[in-house]
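Incident log, structure service

09:12 report received: a user says their structure output differs between two submissions of the same chain.
09:20 pulled the input from the user's history:
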Amino acid sequence: MNIDKQLQQNIPFLSQLPGLLPHIGSGYAQAKRKIIIVGESHYLAASLNNKVTREDWYDNILNILEKIRDAKSLGYIHTRGVISDMLTGKFNKAYTIFYNLNREYQDVYETSDHLFKSAVYLNYFQRPAEVTGDSINNNKRDNEVAYDNLIKLSSILKPDIVIFVSSKSFEAFQSEDSKQKLAGFTFDTVPHAASAWWNKKSKNYGTNEDGSLRTGKQKFRAILKSL
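09:34 re-ran on a clean worker, output below:
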């Protein structure tokens, strides 16, 4: 059974929402270091701002998909489409997070291979944010669905590490994991690679070998070096 069928069998809503299937790099199965990168959430076209409720998304998804299709917005919730566009060189400022992560990956491992040709990427929350470009207003149900999804994904993909690149996602994950304790994988977090914190020092990111505070970028490099 291929991975997509396994995922859809274990996570039924991915059959209704195949656009939310994680991007799985073509080289992931053979990769020396199996890495899952976890973002925050998709969002929809501005014409749908605040028009798709949490309840409709989880309980009435087929009707909501019609609304999204009519608004020509299905591409907004297509994880693999986003990564494919980025990998084929279609420049988009919104892809800065991927460019920056890949730059450090290639530098640390002294390779021309692209991070996202061997890594997995998904957005943690399995519902789009309410407003285009904004952070999702997540609640208990969002957190539970997202956690369940990641636990099931990891059981199939068996990563060496899961790296969160969204503080909101990581906080939601930690909160849920403290209750359920099902994460059988190593995980860590770095700031969003397109945010100011990527290049800012913070005690939250630990210290370099010389004792200086790390930036978010330096923490990401340290995680990669540890694998």
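09:41 both user submissions now match this output. Likely a transient worker issue. Closing.
09:42 reviewer note: The first helix runs from residue 3 to 10. DSSP finds nine helices and five strands in the chain.
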